[in-house]
Amino acid sequence: MKFDIKKHISVQEVISTKNVYLNHLVKHQRKYLILLLLIVLGIPLFSNYLQNDPLIMGGESYFHLSQTKVISNYTFYYWPLKMIESFLPNQLLILIPLLFAVCSILMFIEVMKKTNFTMRSTFFFLTLLIISPAFIFTFITISAYSLAIFSILLGFLLLSQKRSGWQFLSLIPFLAVIVIDIYSTFLLLLLLGIYLYFEKKEEKIKRIKILSITIIILTMVNIVFLNLPLMMGPFHNQQLIPDLLSDLGGLSGMNFFTLILSLIGLSITWKKKGFSFAYMILPFTIIAYIFNTQTIIYLTMILTFFATVGMTKLFERNWNLVALKRFTFFILVLGLLFSTITYLERVPENSPTNSEIEVLTWMDNNFLSERVVFSDPENSYFIDYFTEQRPYYQLNEKRFFKKEQTQGILAALYIDELFPLLEQNEITTIYISEKMNSKLSKEQGLLFLLKNERFKIIHSYEGNEVWEFKIY
Length: 472
Fold this sequence. Notes:
- This protein is mostly helical.
- The protein contains 23 helices and 5 strands.
- It has helices at residues 5-10, 20-27, 29-50, 59-67, 79-87, 95-113, 119-130, 133-138, 144-159, 164-169, 171-178, 182-198, 202-225, 256-269, 276-291, 296-316, 322-346, 354-366, 380-387, 400-411, 415-424, 434-439, 446-449, and strands spanning 372-374, 390-391, 429-432, 455-461, 464-469.
């Protein structure tokens, strides 16, 4: 009996229900999605391991690690991280976000089973989400928003259980969300409101209302006593458009093709019933992103939802030219892969390198008294953690005066502009990282003015330098 190739190929309609390969992936999506997750997150970690660089990446990671050293009554929520840090070697702290990532994907699958989302749509959504730069960066760093996503999913998973005891237990993970920032709490309350809208059982509606009121009261207490920020961060120099699209060199963001698919999804679902909940969340995440691009992960998740709708509607419909349909799908897959691979190559650049740590450690060992250290604000979290000196300005500080002074120091063209700024702010040490050396002009500005006799280089290693400024 001959195998009819044409007949076999004819049923392989890209993402059709007749596609036996896709059906297999969807049926066993747990193991395939976790495998994809470990590969995607493992590539930058393995790259850092080969270069002997730290596995912990990003300024936010070192901000949280620094907070464990100065825990007070107002930052008691850092105790769990401090306890983990006390018995887990530094390099193995990367297991925290990796564990959050694996558990979040598994909980996503379980939560979506309880909605109108099909298994096929769940598979596409999570695949697009896992390869998105925002997801990669959030779950490869010690990020507050990775904890928020994990806690929200766990809370709703407990809330969806039949027993009332499990439902009330959802308050525990929800409590973890409300100590992160006010924005995450409002997002949680919005999701609870949407859940309440679709819930039909009277007893469960009462429990959700009790939970919501409890969260609101505790949030008000937190705002008054813990002085929580409106939004976490930022921990990098923000750029509105590049931070949205990783293809433009942003710290994280989205893939360009995912954004295109999301626009298609938006055009398809516009004013359609059943998508009102998504349109309630979308403006909330867009406004937050405009004010603080650190919240890109939330915007990415809702846009990935629309991208999933766009992709399934686009490729499940009948095309007059099947060959064109397959070619378009092939280009889409190649575009997503290329964008993700390109980003994975850039991710390790966000960690402190081994040479940077050598210089920072030297500062820690040789500075006997506390100094004010000036550098690019993105380096401030590394300075704080590794040297325990006082960085002049951190990006998550709400001090616009310091921000303006920092910009003035970096942009100063003459010593008459630079010296008063350094003296007024009691800056005696300037740390120039290798990245700053390559980014700043050597013909004018700060690097050029360091040639003045009042500056003295006291340590350097592989392009990283420590300069001392004499204050008269």
